Amino acid sequence: MMASLKTPTLKTPSFALSSKPRLPSAFSAAFPNTARFPRSHPQRRRFLIVTASSSSFSNKPTVLVAEKLGEAGLTLLKEFANVDCSYNLSPEELCTKISLCDALIVRSGTKVNREVFESSGGRLKVVGRAGVGIDNVDLSAATEHGCLVVNAPTANTVAAAEHGIALLAAMARNVAQADASVKAGKWQRNKYVGVSLVGKTLAVLGFGKVGSEVARRAKGLGMHVIAHDPYAPADRARAIGVELVSFDEAIATADFISLHMPLTPATNKMLNDETFAKMKKGVRIVNVARGGVIDEEALVRALDAGVVAQAALDVFSEEPPKQDSKLVQHERVTVTPHLGASTMEAQEGVAIEIAEAVVGALKGELAATAVNAPMVPAEVLTELKPYVELAEKLGRLAVQLVAGGSGVKTVKVSYASSRAPDDLDTRLLRAMITKGLIEPISSVFVNLVNADYTAKQRGLRITEERILLDGSPESPLESIQVQIANVESKFASAMSESGEIKVEGRVKDGIPHLTKVGSFEVDVSLEGSIILCRQVDQPGMIGTVGSILGEENVNVSFMSVGRVAPRKHAVMAIGVDEQPSKETLKRIGEVPAIEEFVFLKL
Ligand SMILES: NC(=O)c1ccc[n+]([C@@H]2O[C@H](COP(=O)([O-])OP(=O)(O)OC[C@H]3O[C@@H](n4cnc5c(N)ncnc54)[C@H](O)[C@@H]3O)[C@@H](O)[C@H]2O)c1
Ligand SMILES: O=C(O)[C@H](O)COP(=O)(O)O
């Protein structure tokens, strides 16, 4: 039983900036701008996520570029931001500078640790890693500080693969050692007899972007290529004639091993005394991935024992390695100073890729290469946009209805949809409900990056339930319901029969609406602010309250009354464009038929 009394005045979404960046503005501003990603970018239009919006559109943001970046990238950055290129900063200098920066761009040479995020005082919004590996960035600290981390995952793939092949061939033919020998005035043709590649087995460990390009090239050299990667699809390997095998099989059968996995806790020192012992005697190892995937001391032992005949290394657990490092100085080891990505072409590409990602993220646009936020397919994101706004507003409303109790700890979210659960990605919605629940009651800035972390930190448990409806699955969601348990409400009518604060909303014509408060059905578009009144249903109430608001020039955008039965209790929801003064709210509360009321800011 519900009556809508006034058609809502639909306004353009507000872009006004608050002290806390508001994600919905970013959504409104950004959809579906994907043109910034280079046409060649494989993730273009595939995976996009929304980032925090820039803190200010009036002042140019400041980007600190802490390692050398290609000119094309700098030019792109300078069109949008103040760019401070300060290379070779000490950790202390970096921590001092960072509090003045909105974004930081690094390569692999800068440690972006927890201290950096703590020193930023909340200003740092984006860290751009101009390359692939993000092991030099403390992702947990970034996430905890709501800072997005983006990388440039594709532009240096070919360069790294080419360097891997260069090291493979140079190692097999002793190119570096022979070169040094000739330059030292020697002519040692017998000493530098090499081994052939053709017909030999190469095990590629890590069959991702670089690994698969290395495999492709090694096939061209006539090698038999096998690969180990627990997460790579077998059909992708098969397509280029590579067999995926177990780790033990790969290392036991390979004449050459090429490493291409990221450095993670699981891959740290993956090649160690135990695994070297399982290898074919005389194996040769190439590493253009990360130094830490090899136990370097164990490698020296394996070289000395003749288990490993040779190694060619571009990366080291400590960079630069100590000059007297036994590994670096080993006669049968060829080394380069982390040159995998260092071609003119790759550096130009990486610079453009990272500059676009950082500028986009600072503008609050969609970021395709985020590494610490959920990636949601672009089509899903576009479809969910109004529901994302609804989710945040329901969270905001629900938490403002809380009066006391044990604190907001248990929240249940129900999504009613005709779509099968697998077709409904609720991560964005959950993040935005979390944002709505936490921001009005704290100084914490919540975004997609840190929503789950922040909820966990605050002991807020959000459970999700899907209600499968009959009907057409055309729209992703019918309604979202947010319930807060174990609390009291400052508006008793918002309590459900089972004792939770309950609000429910829907999207109508692309606009989020509040459709239920407690057990009362209402219909008010979620814009501006809302006054909820419980009254005894009787003629003249709308006019009475409307006149009080009108006298103070508060514009009513929407009014709706939900009632149990005629002349019984009813809840009136009034949307207002301006915030009424305390005096006006007091006057509403004094209307005899009004039993309780609450003013809620959206
Ligand atoms: N030397 C350089 O200058 C240079 C340049 C580019 C990339 N890299 C490094 O190369 C590595 C690969 O880069 P990419 O762009 O191909 O990354 P990628 O993410 O495309 O591929 C990495 C692959 O490793 C796999 N993997 C993860 N854990 C594994 C495990 N335990 N065992 C086997 N495989 C595992 C993943 O499934 C993935 O397929 C990274 O470490 C990157 O930092 C170095
Ligand atoms: O992970 C990468 O992209 C490479 O290791 C390249 O690192 P660099 O940008 O420091 O050359």
Automatic annotation (TrEMBL):
<dbReference type="GO" id="GO:0006564">
    <property type="term" value="P:L-serine biosynthetic process"/>
</dbReference>
<keyword id="KW-0150">Chloroplast</keyword>
<keyword id="KW-0520">NAD</keyword>
<protein>
    <recommendedName>
        <fullName>D-3-phosphoglycerate dehydrogenase</fullName>
        <ecNumber>1.1.1.95</ecNumber>
    </recommendedName>
</protein>
<dbReference type="InterPro" id="IPR015878">
    <property type="entry name" value="Ado_hCys_hydrolase_NAD-bd"/>
</dbReference>
<dbReference type="InterPro" id="IPR036291">
    <property type="entry name" value="NAD(P)-bd_dom_sf"/>
</dbReference>
<dbReference type="InterPro" id="IPR006236">
    <property type="entry name" value="PGDH"/>
</dbReference>
<dbReference type="InterPro" id="IPR045626">
    <property type="entry name" value="PGDH_ASB_dom"/>
</dbReference>
<dbReference type="GO" id="GO:0009570">
    <property type="term" value="C:chloroplast stroma"/>
</dbReference>
<dbReference type="InterPro" id="IPR029009">
    <property type="entry name" value="ASB_dom_sf"/>
</dbReference>
<comment type="pathway">
    <text>Amino-acid biosynthesis; L-serine biosynthesis; L-serine from 3-phospho-D-glycerate: step 1/3.</text>
</comment>
<keyword id="KW-0028">Amino-acid biosynthesis</keyword>
<dbReference type="GO" id="GO:0004617">
    <property type="term" value="F:phosphoglycerate dehydrogenase activity"/>
</dbReference>
<keyword id="KW-0934">Plastid</keyword>
<keyword id="KW-0718">Serine biosynthesis</keyword>
<dbReference type="Pfam" id="PF00389">
    <property type="entry name" value="2-Hacid_dh"/>
</dbReference>
<dbReference type="GO" id="GO:0051287">
    <property type="term" value="F:NAD binding"/>
</dbReference>
<dbReference type="InterPro" id="IPR006140">
    <property type="entry name" value="D-isomer_DH_NAD-bd"/>
</dbReference>
<dbReference type="InterPro" id="IPR029752">
    <property type="entry name" value="D-isomer_DH_CS1"/>
</dbReference>
<keyword id="KW-0809">Transit peptide</keyword>
<dbReference type="InterPro" id="IPR029753">
    <property type="entry name" value="D-isomer_DH_CS"/>
</dbReference>
<keyword id="KW-0560">Oxidoreductase</keyword>
<dbReference type="Pfam" id="PF02826">
    <property type="entry name" value="2-Hacid_dh_C"/>
</dbReference>
<dbReference type="Pfam" id="PF01842">
    <property type="entry name" value="ACT"/>
</dbReference>
<comment type="similarity">
    <text>Belongs to the D-isomer specific 2-hydroxyacid dehydrogenase family.</text>
</comment>
<dbReference type="Pfam" id="PF19304">
    <property type="entry name" value="PGDH_inter"/>
</dbReference>
<feature type="domain" description="ACT">
    <location>
        <begin position="530"/>
        <end position="602"/>
    </location>
</feature>
<dbReference type="InterPro" id="IPR045865">
    <property type="entry name" value="ACT-like_dom_sf"/>
</dbReference>
<dbReference type="InterPro" id="IPR006139">
    <property type="entry name" value="D-isomer_2_OHA_DH_cat_dom"/>
</dbReference>
<dbReference type="InterPro" id="IPR002912">
    <property type="entry name" value="ACT_dom"/>
</dbReference>
